[in-house]
Amino acid sequence: MTRARQDRLLALLVREGDWATAATLADALGVTPRSIRSYVTALNARVPSGAAVESGSQGYRAGADAASALRASGTDAGTPRDRLHRLVRALLDAPDGIDVFETADALHVSAATLDADLARVRGLLGGTELTLERSASRARLRGTEMAQRRLLSRLAHDEMDAGSFDLVALRRTLGEGSVGAAAFGPFKTDLVAELGALGYFVNEIGIGDVVMHIAIAADRVAQNRGLDAAVTEYRPAQQEVASIIAQLAQRHLGVELGPGDLQHLATLVLTRVVAPGDQTPVDHARARLDADVEATVREVVETAAAEFLVDIVYEDFIMRLALHVQNLQHRAREQAWSRNPLTRSLKSTYPMIFEVAVFVASRLQERLGIPLPDDEIAYIAMHVGGRLERSRHADQLLTATIVCPGYYDLHELLRSSVDRSLGQAIEVVGVETRIDPDWTSIDTDLVLTTIDPPVPGDRIVKIQPFLTGADIEHVQAAAARIRRARRLARLRAELERYFDASAFVRGLDTADAGAGAGGTGVEEVVIRRLGSSLVASGVIDEDYVERAIQRERMSSTAFTDALAVPHALEMTATRTAIAIGIADPSIPWGGGRVQVVALVAFSETDREAFQTVFEQFVEVFSERDSVQRIVRRATDFGGFLDELVAVIDG
């Protein structure tokens, strides 16, 4: 557990990219500041000649050798986690089982300790179709070869950080002498090139996961543990991909994969990491689709567009998403889920897009029976985000007026430079060529002027007649300030309407005392506690609380390292209201820890406000200093509202 917390600390510092105090980091990890200092010492010990974590008067930040420290295997080979993984590998490598006493001696533990480890192995086997048998001094795993490979895959994921795949972690999983560990590097490069030559787009985010499965297959085949021959005929696409994998396995690994392995791996490639190229016509894509899947996805997309007021109903988007969902069905049958290292950043940076993806995933789960973990929801979010990025409205641009006294065509040259360099951020709607313009009549969002204005202002940016790189940066910064100020102004207006003093709880840390009873998690306890206030005031009913809990089970609503925003997917509240809970110290939530929980209940009439409140509220609480200020000073509802408004106003 200590090493896991060290890794979490370093990952947090890398993600923040700035200084953080020991107290702030302790809140995020649920430990004491003294523990943070000891973790920093241990992390720096992993890279004796470098610095994993830098220390200073402002606290701690990630050092130049942070990545090396995360990859370092460390000296924890005797930890329970490492011992558990070694025990599982021993069981997987021994068809006839292991001798408990001999294995205990090899691991330098007592037989009683190994018995306890075997009990933990049983806990790993849930959903794997494997069983652990014990007869006298022997223990063995029973189950299909495919089930054993799934267990190896689970171990590999457990060894790796945030879904990213690396050679060191794979070798720890398969063993240093593994044939498959060499599958990275040249094998992956050639596989991507060959797939590209066939006209496929390759998903680089998922390719590492597939290569890991190829590595596992190669290692098992080298031990004469190949899959049985396939019982179904190859489809043409499968045949093409299988042929590539067979050639590369021979070339790079010296392993001859059998028909069963090749068909399995070709299916993984086709359902995980490739998509039709841009030139693929819609009719050709539809020919590959199950009609029921297409109809279901179309219905779900149209419902999501209406529910969240987002512009995603496009034929190419529906086709690509439907192909993705059809592949999801194949992966679900194989229990071969794809990891997505962007899940956390997508959730915290684009909470609204992720929420649309959760809605789509929930409806697909209902209609197609596909259970979707967070990483798979993140892939749907990438589809949604890509479509929304393409269909952004021009009214998102800020308007601008250029003030440039006339001299030949200087003002036209300047306008051309502005359009070329800043056209994606602003739209020039007017040019003033007088030396004494009527400044009060200029009502655009920005004023770009080559002369000094009589009164400086936030929307006025002084630029040179010949646009420079520094001018471009100043205009972009001013545009960003204006956009943020507008977003937060809208947020402030909305929030002041929705908060209720009777739905404010300070001291959520006391709520987890009831967690764990009957399998109830902290999240459910807190949601019920905050929901009871809104139920008492008639804003929601008990059914809304239950649906908020169901939504939480689908995907954690901890959108930042400090804030959770539980809610139901349907907007059925009698009026929009937000119940706030403050936790000091932090409480566990969805695999992380949070200090602020905002149970949001939206009404149908406030559908348009959903995006403003949801996305900008998360933005405010993504700044750790702001969170600490609010948590420390918000001793009551009045104090919370005052501090929140102060943070919003800057």
Essential attributes:
650 residues, alpha/beta, repeat, 15 strands, WH-like_DNA-bd_sf, 4-stranded mixed β-sheet, PRD, globular, Arc Repressor Mutant, subunit A, PTS-regulatory domain, PRD
Could you explain the architecture of this structure?
The protein is an alpha/beta fold and 650 residues long. The protein has 6 domains: 2-71, Arc Repressor Mutant, subunit A (Orthogonal Bundle); 80-143, Arc Repressor Mutant, subunit A (Orthogonal Bundle); 167-276, PTS-regulatory domain, PRD (Orthogonal Bundle); 282-390, PRD domain (PTS-regulatory domain, PRD); 394-467, Rossmann fold; 489-649, 3-Layer(aba) Sandwich (Mannitol-specific EII, Chain A), CATH 3.40.930. It is built from 26 helices and 15 strands. The strands form 5 sheets. Strands 9-8-10-11 form a 4-stranded parallel sheet, with helices on one face. A 4-stranded mixed sheet has the order 12-14-15-13. Strands 3-5-4 form a 3-stranded antiparallel sheet. Strand 8, helix 20 (410-422) and strand 9 form a beta-alpha-beta unit. Helix 8 packs across helix 9, helix 12 packs across helix 13 and helix 18 (351-368) packs across helix 19 (374-390). The protein is globular, with a radius of gyration of 28 Å.
